[in-house]
Amino acid sequence: MSGEFDLIARHFCPLAAPEALSLLDDAALLPVSGTLALTADAMVAGVHFLPNDPADLVARKLLRVNLSDLAAMSAEPVGYLVTMAVPYGTEEAWFAAFAGGLAADQAEFGVRLLGGDTTATPGPLTLSLTALGRVTTPLRRQGAQPGDGLFVTGTIGDAALGLLALQGKLADPTGTLVERYRLPRPRLGLRLGEIAHAGLDVSDGLVQDVGHLCACSGVAAVIEAALVPLSAAARAAGAKLETILTGGDDYELAIALPPGAEALLPGGVAFTRIGQFEAGPPAVRVVDAQNQPVPLERAGWQHFR
Amino acid sequence: MSGEFDLIARHFCPLAAPEALSLLDDAALLPVSGTLALTADAMVAGVHFLPNDPADLVARKLLRVNLSDLAAMSAEPVGYLVTMAVPYGTEEAWFAAFAGGLAADQAEFGVRLLGGDTTATPGPLTLSLTALGRVTTPLRRQGAQPGDGLFVTGTIGDAALGLLALQGKLADPTGTLVERYRLPRPRLGLRLGEIAHAGLDVSDGLVQDVGHLCACSGVAAVIEAALVPLSAAARAAGAKLETILTGGDDYELAIALPPGAEALLPGGVAFTRIGQFEAGPPAVRVVDAQNQPVPLERAGWQHFR
Description:
With 305 residues, chain A is α+β, with helices and mostly antiparallel strands. The first copy, chain A, is built from 8 helices and 10 strands.
């Protein structure tokens, strides 16, 4: 096992932006003009990913959940800082794979490493990443208005089903669901701040996250369960509706779109109308095709419950 | 125990800057014009602090070690993001004390919370903080030149002695040493970028950190052990010279000062000349008052050794 400084030089310096000063100084120096979007998320082995998940996929998920937060604000990524508390005895090959995952996503999303910290821990692998983005017209959680349509990108529920598949509770013959759990696709580059009234990314569960939009905007929402877009793999898996509606980790965007703005939605990504916002105290109703309430045991994920 | 969102609203929203958008959105939005200094450090219970250290002091140390990195670059703090992986079953009182520590240091250092994440962990408390600062004339680790004086702020070795005191290996009747270990004083506001050639903060141990200055600057350094400033408490504790020279966690600044610049050093903080930089391959020699080499078993701290 190499020393800390060797590990950084060998595996992380190749990822570093020029502004990171070869990771040798006490801080990066980043010239900025405009508005920065700043977000940070932590991930713990056994909580946010499975302890035996491949290191490269863990790295990419860590980066992508943060890029998804930037996407949720209609920001474009600039760079990131990452801190790692790594179990004693971790092999150097693990660091190489982890850095390889970051390298792959740096190329895919046009971001670079700005700094960080590596330490050892007697506990589980614990990761934290702070992402910086540039934003011109931000998309906020507040601003949804009665009459706005509720739209989501992509398909909903796949990641929660992927977790069930990894736990052996569900068949996933194509591996699609597991991949959605392990490798979210941040919905960057859509410039939704210019056309939507409000939005966020779906990370805690669709119903709960739409509830956040309602709470921040002071409106109610109705989700028509039959309209929620499912992937072919999710249909084939025969998942419970509740899992689809309340499972986390999809990292799709949910937005409030004013009437008439549908034609302005960008191409290349599927947007599906799944309901609408209404006047009323913040609350989410889920209804079936007969407009009857769909009962749910819980809305989504919270830690420390 | 409250839910995650309640905890955030109750304990962390009062700390939030306006740019943090009440911690309700997916990212903070920070208008910036100029150069940002960015740094991140992680801390793990049992590694960087003792598991039973008071929560408010842990919070303040976490913030301060990052502010010290900003000070090392001659940057002034703007704000920070913090992620916390907190052991299952942690009481709400712990969060209240942790937030209280942050509040105290926010007032002291003029920074505010910009965002973060809170999650549960089956492992030890694991914290990560990203600090942002503004910098006009940065102080880098590169730039030290032969003939520059090597200066440090404050006193050296107290924090390492404080750790020994907490471990029962040393007497600390005044509590001064323990306080230096638990509560570093980031040397902010000194504007050293304008007068020093190079600098950093002493966090891994004096000899090792001066070695970093040498490596980045391509010069050698001599430390005259007898000149290293000790506190009265350190003298009274009768510490080994090696502990003073190689112990970490002091968070004083070490700088390379060109000849004649001593008169330009700011007031209010003690600066002590402890040696000089010389031409030669990067290396640190420690000599005694008779100019004889002082043997050291190790230079400082590294994780993963």
